[in-house]
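Q: what does this look like with NAI bound?
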Amino acid sequence: MAAFYDTARATDAHGAEPFDLVVLGAGSGGYACALRAAQLGFTVALVEKDKVGGTCLHRGCIPTKAMLHAAEVADSVRGGSQFGVHAAIDKIDLAGVVAYADSVVGRVYKGLSGLVSGNGNGITVVQGNGRLTAQDGRPSVTVGDRTYQARNLILATGSYPRSLPELEIDGAKILTSEQALRLDRLPASAIVLGGGVIGVEFASAWRSFGVDVTIVEALPRLVSGEDSSISNALERAFRKRKINMFTGAALSECQADESGVRVELVDGQRLEAELMLVAVGRGPRTAGLGYRESGVDVDDGFVRVTERLETSVSGVYAVGDLVRGPQLAHRGFAHGIFVAEEIANRAGVLEQAPATIVDANVPRVTYCDPEIASVGLGEAEARTRFGEVETFTYDLAGNGKSQILKTRGFVKLVRRSSGPVIGIHMIGARVSELVGEAQLITNWDAFPADVADLIHAHPSQTEALGEAHLALAGKPLHSHG
Ligand code: NAI
């Protein structure tokens, strides 16, 4: 495949094959960038120290969602009698759950590896620990004793689980989410430190498996990135599921030994459990990789980028969790595709410059039970930004399919006063599947009347979205508007 740049600039210092792009990190952001760049005719060196697929595939999204699916199966069995199907759980074999998750990861990994290293697609996977260096004053990536240079470098080294200075992660009693995913035996009880996305997903799955779970969250509510109505509904649902919660709660002391973990909160409350999951956020993986030394501006660990994802060094871009904003795999994919197209546009290969990625319009899904799915601005944020807004909340009690599923929840819309819909917030079983339509609505700046004209299949949960828009357009069908 032809290289678009002059080989003098793109030749690796040891005279190996010249590349148009060097991508450091083959997680969601990095491999998406490599695939799109290869489609556009560029040659790409994709540097990865572990496995193509990164955190999302091997230690994040895919295995956790497999675990959450197993949790849903457990809940279906346990709750079968309310549907007239009587069944009992014999045992939860966590090693079996892990083996199932591993088999899913294995299949996806095989497919992805084939895609990335497919013969003649222009991508060369370089196995090893890469580091950004400035070779002859030009940024390059060094892997062992080899140096790769290209006109464009893409930093895509992702993130790692954060901890607190006072905690010693021992992998046995105090664990990161990555370690928790590898447990082969369920604890009788667990403390989950952090009520964000990872915290509530693990709390939910473990509770479904019968674990006595306590969440400790520093902020006044769970999932504080969501509209407050969602946090309230989730807390209600978790309380019903007998998940213990301490919000606005700071950790004062923590001790761990063979018998378990003992925690004291600042208000004097004492908690004890067999183990503790630390889910207090993920930090960008930028330290020790030569970024600062090569002139790349790093701010509190995050790589500083322009709206077009270029770093402070011309021709060096950053994608995914390295860039401040929602740390979501699909945002990483979008960043990767964007950068490949941006480079192609600047090189004259692609006529149109890609549209920038707006974080607020990236859909978000949290796979706890009940599920949470949202896109756009929450009500409070929308009011701060635009002043007058209108909202409408459609209760899933009015949706036939949700009644069949025996789920509770709602669809809440936020629109600019007499303007387009700028936020959609949903909670309830299976609402993750509604976010596809929701993100089309906000990304296309649809007005309630535009969506009200569209027909939603009956009986489906998508009708709840339709009904909410009908109501906001002033013609409610199964609600009072
Ligand atoms: P997060 O930022 O969502 O939540 C961390 C929580 O820990 C926050 O609520 C924070 O207030 C709390 N916290 C921080 N320090 C604390 C302390 N000392 N004591 C008690 N609470 C404390 O981060 P999380 O859950 O670790 O997830 C990391 C990233 O991974 C997130 O950006 C998330 O979006 C992403 N992710 C996405 C998933 C999805 O899309 N379904 C699933 C899992 C993770």
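The longest helix spans residues 94-117. Confidence is low (pLDDT under 50) at residues 1-13.
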